[in-house]
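Morning F.,

Quick status update on the modeling queue. The single chain you submitted on Monday has been processed. Sequence for confirmation:
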Amino acid sequence: MKKIQSILLAGLVLFGIYSFVNNKSTSSDNEFEVLTLTPEENPVVGTSIGNKAPELKFKSPSGKEIALSDLKGQMVLIDFWASWCSPCRRENPTVVKAYNTFKSENFKSGKGFTVYGVSLDSNKDAWVKAIKTDGLVWENHVSDLKHWQSAGAKTYKVRGIPSNFLIDGNGIIVAKNLRGNDLIKTLGKFVVKIRTDEEIFTNINECILELEEKLKTAKDSKETKALKKKVAKLKKTLNK
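Structure tokens below.
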């Protein structure tokens, strides 16, 4: 583990890999939004991109209270839907696909992915039947069975369904109103790819070769010294 950490550190020192993105992108066609800002240190509670997601706490079909905060540490899709909503039911296969694809993934800010389903049903039996029929296998299904008077819908200013909010492991809203493949693609962007030792070593060796080529055309002794220092540091990392 220490060896891998040293290699990664060396790579960072060499290339100075820092990413600063300072704009929010919005798709006018699909009306979905994704956070590309650096999250604020103390975000306000709200329903906009970059806000801290408001708390939700309602009962499951079995009567168990489930709070949104219980899922802290995971990527969570807060999904507002209902058994009587045809567009919601058509969207459910995509949500199921996303869950099965990403439930065990590691994200930039969160480990694993799940769904917090908030139903706007008023009929419990219809709600439970839809969960079973559509194969919504995650456990976090909640509702106050108040239809459009749903307290959760009011909190999140939901005026139409399906409607959803994607939050990271810190409870920050990073995307919303994701439909179809946009949900899959957005989740994929937040996944952290774990590189193998072989990939890391290959990358370091490529860096060394590139630096050695630059040494051949170094302009002066100062540049030569700097390049040799970098090469030596990387070789030392490989030999640890």
